[in-house]
Amino acid sequence: MSDNIVGKFHGRDWLTIQEWSQEDLQTLIDAAIKIKKLQKERNPHDYLLRQTLFMIFFNRSLRTRNSFEAGMTQMGGHAHFLSPQDVYRPALPDDEEAYTSERISDVARVLARMGDAIAIRIYGSHAKWIYGRGHRILREFAKWSDIPIINMEDDVYHPCQAMADMQAIQEHTPKVQGKKFVMSWAYSPSTKKPLAVPQSGVLMGTKWGMDVVLAHPKGFELDPKILEMCEKNVAQYGGSFEITNDIEEAFAGAHFVYPKCWTSKHHIPPIAPAEDWEGCQKLFDANKNWIADAAKMDLGVKDVKYMHCLPADRGFEVTDEVLDGKWSIAFDEAENRLHSQKAIMAAIMGRP
Ligand code: CP
Questions:
Q1: Among candidates 203, 205, 195, which has minimal Cα distance to 280?
Q2: Which one, out of 31, 71, 124, 322, has a CA that is 20 to 30 A from the CA of 37?
Q3: pTM for this entry
Q4: Distance, CA 255 to ligand 1 centroid (Å)?
């Protein structure tokens, strides 16, 4: 019964999937599938009655905000939307401004006395485009808060997206081990996209023992620490992990492809001495052919699936024919944000 999930991991933070075992993550996915059924049948599941989730959004959102907010309502609780400019902006000690900001140690302890979990989204300019600073802010919240911290996407990880994605994969292919999962870079006119989704995607695929291929043009390498974690996952859970600079080679024989734009970390600090968006744009413009179109999808297995976290840049990352066509499970992934996050919240916020 789904009710067994309530409080199963009471008090744990949800910051990355890497610090959770495959077994515990699968427990959450199984619960999410049951919760999805309860929701579709409109069966009550008040797992978090009168509980409060604080959501701090430094960046905009459609899916994340609405799935958390609807999820809390459906489980009998409430989610507060907190916009940093309308509260005092939570700040690290090196970034304080009198009266317009408030130190994270204080924000975290105050909210922890009033509610049941704090969820945060922060990347890009809000993390000063210093790779890793957004994640550091979440860790700072976790250090001071004695209620769970939930990562709603930072500049390194998007663990909620990874769980919704794995749920969608399992709904289409119950046995995922041995299936080829391709996380691929794709072109977008916007260079300012975080690395969180591709990094969480390759961690997810390797965590479940899939045959994971990371494809990108030269210059779009992921964080070496993430690549090391992928190798560690392969050693522990089986499967394989390869990197290629050839999109066609990557798509050949694939079961799942996830073509998605991300920025080049070589053009932002700490690797670059300062943000270099002009140089980054040149690198992007040299790779406009990295688009998911029907010809590339046809290189996959017969029922290859197209995945995307959304929002997708239509006509650049992907053609309409692919996103709206027989291959696409992008809208299942979006829907599953609701169900998988309800399972995570029930598990870490619920009382056993
Ligand atoms: N996939 C995702 O996180 O969507 P939003 O940016 O709309 O929340």
A1: 195
A2: 322
A3: 0.97
A4: 24
